[in-house]
Amino acid sequence: MSKSVIVVGTGNAALCAAIAALEKGATVLLLEKAGKDLAGGNTKYTAGAMRFAYDGNADLLPLVREQDDPRLPKTDFGSYTKDKFAADLLGFNDGRDLSPEQKVLVENSGDTMRWLASHDVTFEPIYSRQSFEKDGKHVFWGGLTLAAENEGVGLFEMEMAAVQRLGGTVRYDAEVTGLIEDQGRVIGVQVGDESLFADSVILASGGFEANEEMRVQYIGAHWDKAKVRGTPHNTGDGLRIALEVGATEYGFFEGCHATPMDLHMADFGGLDLPPSERKNYRKISYFLGVMLNAEGKRFVDEGANFRNYTYAQFGRAILEQPGQFAWQVFDSKVFDLLYAEYCFHDAHFVEAKTLEELVPLMTGVDAVQATQTLTEFNSAVDMTVPFDPTVLDGKGTRGLTLPKSNWAQRFDTGPYRAFPVTGGITFTYGGLKVDGAGAVLREDGTAIEGLFACGELVGGVFFAGYPGGSGLTSGAVFGRKAGIGAVC
Ligand SMILES: Cc1cc2nc3c(=O)[nH]c(=O)nc-3n(C[C@H](O)[C@H](O)[C@H](O)COP(=O)(O)OP(=O)(O)OC[C@H]3O[C@@H](n4cnc5c(N)ncnc54)[C@H](O)[C@@H]3O)c2cc1C
């Protein structure tokens, strides 16, 4: 007789778990807290970018649907080895070794992409954000090359279609409120008063980023005001109900992915907006200018690295500033290089012909100190090095206590613009400990029989930051493992 599996959630991790379990012959029911419109969790809000190890064009091309794209023959994807992926993760580990979960992620990333492709999930190169043109070629940088066709919504739809083709069933408006145990084994879930039973339960209900109380409890006091970039439904329910049956907390609970966002965006990501508008509240061109806090001071090295490697920490850094906001300041020399989100019709900014006129327009900022900071910055810019935004150009400041290491240009060509920003939380890093089959572990290392977890709920994958595009890959890798583990 086929095994029965309940999957909690319908995001990327849940759908991968469901596909894997269905492939193994299980009967699968997915329970989703949201209605049909908001099903798919944070997955639907993403750009669909997925980071994975590959050896070169030959590895990538079979994953791309649009094989006739005239740019393809002129594209150099480079290679992104497992060692490079591991090194990128290590770069965010604050001195920690690669965790067992990170090793699993790296080792299985390429294979999992091919597995998704075998279920008709197709991808497209991220030409606009991850490549530049050089000598007539499209050259990719940073190891992040592909996104699901039609971004996060496309990923959700393609994975959901695979689930339905394989015979999975989905119930919306079904909030899982507890687990049912029998002699230490999980045998089902509660949806309010209703009890539903299965051989295995896979929790794929995301992190606790949308739960203000848990953010303050685990991440820190000033996280109450964080904007939530994604779904309002990831309120830590899976974590809570797993802890109730003896699971152990695991991973970096103080950590989360957060990014600079427009200070005046809504409190949650709006799926009601078209994707092209939704993502425009993000403000990540800071590397082309400087960021000033309420005291009129800079507080990060805006040019420390490519923005892929810094934006997640800088969202946090902004929330740690007085008043939980900052202003991003740009000279007109870079207006054309700012991402489209800065010209978006609902982008908030102030503009003035001179810095003297601009500074008082930056509400909440100490104008005297801000002027001094910008003057000192201008004097410190190394004018001997040419500006080149396509590489780490080494055009930095000299002599500032807090340097800007790359892409430092003087503020000397008005008009100038300043954009008010805050930190938007994307997802949390702390979660549950799972074994190699995705089973949830107790503190003593034993598995809770019948209980599996994947996606944002898995701890130990990210610490001080994350190389962009690893969240979805992690969800797919651990989702697939949990799906197989729940059946075998
Ligand atoms: C704006 C934004 C952009 C992003 N861009 C990228 C990107 O390009 N690349 C990348 O790798 N990552 C990106 N991420 C991160 C990525 O979204 C997550 O890593 C990934 O989607 C998590 O997948 P998941 O399946 O674990 O969770 P989710 O996709 O959030 O799914 C969780 C599901 O569980 C449901 N749920 C919650 N509680 C319950 C309950 N009690 N009962 C039933 N269901 C419940 C939720 O409604 C939701 O459907 C982005 C995130 C955001 C917010």
From TrEMBL:
Residues forming the FAD-dependent oxidoreductase 2 FAD-binding domain are: 5-470
Does the record carry Flavoprotein as a key word?
Answer: yes
Fetch the InterPro entries from UniProt. FAD-dep_OxRdtase_2_FAD-bd, FAD-oxidoreductase_2, FAD/NAD-bd_sf, Succ_DH/fumarate_Rdtase_cat_sf
Q: Which UniProt keywords apply?
A: FAD, Flavoprotein, Oxidoreductase
| Cofactors named for this entry | FAD
Q: What is this protein called?
A: Tricarballylate dehydrogenase
Q: What are the top taxonomic ranks of the organism?
A: Bacteria, Pseudomonadati, Pseudomonadota, Alphaproteobacteria, Rhodobacterales
